[in-house]
Amino acid sequence: MNTVVTNSASDRGVFGSLAYLVIDDFENFRLSMRHMLRGCGADNIELVAHARPAVEYCTYNHVDVVLCDYNLGDGMNGQHILEELRHKKLLKRTSLFLLVTSESSREMVMGARENQPDAYLTKPINLAMLEKRLGSLINQRNALLPINREIDRENYPEAISLCINALPRLPRYKTWLMKTLGELYFQLGDLSHAIKIYDEILSQRELPWAKHGRSKVLLANRHYEEAVECLRQLVADHPDYMEAYDLLSEGLECQNRPAQAQKILEQATRYSPNALPRQKHLAELAESNQDMETAVQAWRKTVNLGAHSIHDSADHYLSLSNTLCELSDGNTSREGKAIAKEAFSTLAELEKRFPGNHILELRSRITQCRIYAGQENLQEAEKVLESVRPQLNNIRSVGLETGLDYTKTLYSLGYGSEAKSLLGEMADEFSDNSAAVRKIESLLDEPVSFRTKIKARRLNREGIAAFESGNLKEARNIFINALEMIPNHPALNLNQVQVLIKEYEVNAGNKALKELCQYHLNRLAGLPEQHGQYRRYLALQRKLKELNQ
């Protein structure tokens, strides 16, 4: 403990000018860290035992260096603290965060790395190690302080100017300066300068962050194919570079390849399972792909990770319960009952964790109603429905998602006409919101369970394939089967009309074919003008009239 400090960075003036926060649940370690920091010349040292008071301290006090243990007993850990400080912008770029740990599991390291601590210190720690590691970081902090101050102020043009001026003066930090320049140019939307930076780096050395940055620029310029190919190579060469998986998934979604995007995120979560935003994205993608088993697993993980995270949200609980509801729908076996039970317990946890929120309680009751209906407990479902009906007269006041949940529940209990009428009102109410209109359309088109949707979509693909190959009779029979599942589906009805018109052109005397065309068009008489199939509906109506002349 009495080691003489000789490193220039360890001069009392350098260490002594900074404010330190030590977070560890063991008092002996906190006292030991304070003793070592004082040995380096530090004076302003605060000691905190747990996460919540640590975040509170950072809220009201400026801290230059945080030394935080990973394991802090029950509740929040070091990763959660770093995550929250970054999210709330309580930790400036001019500050340093060092994660201290005796644990070295891959899961822990990968999870902590997602929030980019400045360094790791592995226990046990001695003065020489602390002085060397922290001294080096303080040297870099001081050298780059003017640039980071401007970035904290969001004065990006000035930060760029300072980076450019620093390049010849600070060759030791060239990599950091070039990386920061690329990020700043991208932040400002100056994509041409950003890609020049990354190309210059890559011409000298293959660095993962440069490849990643270049791919970001390519995606922003809509060069999806090149970006995806570059990111695939990056993931193959550096399987622990997690940011590449997220960007690759984004690129595949831009190419309208959601199933492949999901596979990439599944791969990423196997490497690093503790990143809540990625688990949430995986859950959403799997849900949109109708892969409910994967969606449930990802939502479960999202909910569990949220227990002590700043990213915790009531929506995660609602999404998990809704996905479980879909899985249990119509499944009254022991397995189905267990899934329904988990859905109910998730909603109970939601109401306990986020009490006093009227809309959340309402959405919880609506979902409970649908779970009862899916388990064929119609008496209980009707009782819950009657208790929520009076609160749903004004859809605008309860919001889009609550309205969509309610219409799903109406459909599940056989109130299809009421549900369609309500969706029509919602389409008018949210007509200026294209994302909302798409959700309303989707529910109007397929107001059925996900299992039925999957079957109908498969039949639709088969019907289109038969039509394109000229097998009209087979195509018509396939669409008949699909329409038995979803009778009022716009695309299915219009596909059938196209098949029937083509058949009529071959057999011009068959009036029954024209009558069938009209029957399917009549099914869509109430199709809203905002619907994506509306123009096609009008076009086929005109074509049928021409055939009648």
Explain what you see:
The chain has 549 residues and is mainly alpha-helical. Among the domains are: 8-148, 3-Layer(aba) Sandwich (Rossmann fold); 313-447, Serine Threonine Protein Phosphatase 5, Tetratricopeptide repeat (Alpha Horseshoe), CATH 1.25.40; 450-548, Alpha Horseshoe (Serine Threonine Protein Phosphatase 5, Tetratricopeptide repeat). It is built from 28 helices and five strands. It has helices spanning 12-16, 27-39, 51-60, 78-87, 106-113, 127-152, 156-169, 174-188, 191-204, 208-220, 224-237, 242-254, 258-271, 276-288, 292-305, 314-328, 334-353, 358-374, 378-388, 395-398, 400-412, 416-429, 434-445, 450-468, 472-485, 490-506, 511-523, 534-548; strands at 19-23, 44-48, 65-69, 96-101, 119-122. It has a five-stranded parallel beta sheet with strand order 2-1-3-4-5, sandwiched between helices. Strand 4 (96-101), helix 5 (106-113) and strand 5 form a beta-alpha-beta unit. Helix 14 runs antiparallel to helix 15 and helix 18 packs antiparallel against helix 19. The radius of gyration is 30 Å and the shape is elongated. Residues 1-10 have low confidence and may be disordered.
